[in-house]
Amino acid sequence: MAKSRIQFICQNCGSVHQRWAGKCDACGEWNTLVEEGTSGGIGSGPANTRNARKGRPVVLTSLSGDIEDAPRIVSGIGELDRATGGGFVRGSALLVGGDPGIGKSTLLTQAAAALAAKGHRIVYVSGEEAVAQIRLRAQRLGVAGAPVELAAETNVEDILATIADGKRPDLVILDSIQTLWTDMADSAPGTVTQVRAAAQAMIRYAKSTGAAIVLVGHVTKEGQIAGPRVVEHMVDAVLYFEGEGGHHYRILRTVKNRFGPTDEIGVFEMSDKGLREVANPSELFLGERHAKSPGAAVFAGMEGTRPVLVEIQALVAPSTLGTPRRAVVGWDGARLSMILAVLEAHCGVRFGTHDVYLNVAGGYRISEPAADLAVAAALVSSLTGLALPADCVYFGEISLSGAVRPVAHAQQRLKEAEKLGFGSAVLPLGSEELAGGNGVGGIGADTFQPTELADLVARIAGSRRSRADEQE
Ligand code: TYD
Ligand code: MG
Q1: The model's pTM
Q2: C-alpha distances in angstroms, 221 versus 98, 177, 227, 250?
Q3: Which fold has domain 289-471?
Q4: Percent of the chain with pLDDT over 90
């Protein structure tokens, strides 16, 4: 065995330090350096130079040539297959990350059962729960009859020996990567070296045999897959399973995918009998909508290839504080400050003495800049106390100059809005997809296409006047 030297590895970013320190220089985290031996760890070079063999030349080839589609195994759980890009790819490794208790084991148990019922060989290895616990979950999910092969084991060599027995498995689920350890590395389970070495061994197994493997990883409160961020670049695809505490639905989000699109989401609802697919997320996010209250605007968003309608709620209230509060849930705080600044600078709307709260209904998270227009409408509506039309959707990006900029997929957004019974829309001018001229996505009669944000503000403010006229 090679002489082992002590080194310190940051459990957050994986960088190696020769000396212990309170703070990692590389990522700036505190108290993340842990002492680990170097022998046998990945990246430490061959442990025994006597066994070193001479390199074997490989055949170099060209960029063009025959390609086959990645062979996939389809689970039949539509939302899961959508997020993976059409099913688990044989010979690939997939990482499913998420907070503890979010439902990763539940989702994978359901997927395992569905695949096993179709005649695939599925092995589920749990390092976290005892067999009895997993059986209990399977009973609750009503899948206890499925021929899934189950083990509670944490040693990689033992797992590999177990699955080498019999027919090659189609899918191996390892729950979770943080509990795995290998004889190859001599640090404690859960450390970066162990997680990396264990993942490496499993990925090598997947590539060499053509079995698909799924690694489950817990996420830290900072939103990173705990410790093994290093695993993220080793695997072929990374999915995050997320949800807001207190809400029942869960979103499976693709972060990386070498075999498919990375902007897809799968939407599930957690029930007492496991996860249920939500085929139409808009209905879920708009479910508890009460017509006509000031400060609410419906945003027609896109998640990957799928339109999603969500309600954006704003509350603008007079502040008693010297520096008024700005609180955001489900959107970017910096982006809110930008919209507030644009409203002040170009539209003459003053928020300086008001607290501003912004919430995306249902605990959903929006990352698209296309939500700018809906946010601005909600803010102005709340400040003026004028409710926006209940059957109207909003989308469009706002630039710092106060101009409303076009966004992609206008047609699809409008189609979804129409399907859900919305009769009007506020959207940017010049969405090139609409240039055809045959009305705007069917809502033709009732669209408003401002070029400046000030036009929209004037329209909302103008609704007060027209309402007063009606009452006269
Ligand atoms: P679990 O899959 O164990 O989470 P993870 O593997 O991500 O840690 O899910 C745990 C939670 O889900 C737990 O709080 C109970 C809840 N749950 C249900 O609400 N319904 C169900 O049918 C199941 C199996 C779990
Ligand atoms: Mg679990």
Answers
A1: 0.76
A2: 10, 17, 12, 17
A3: Ribosomal Protein S5; domain 2 (3.30.230)
A4: 49
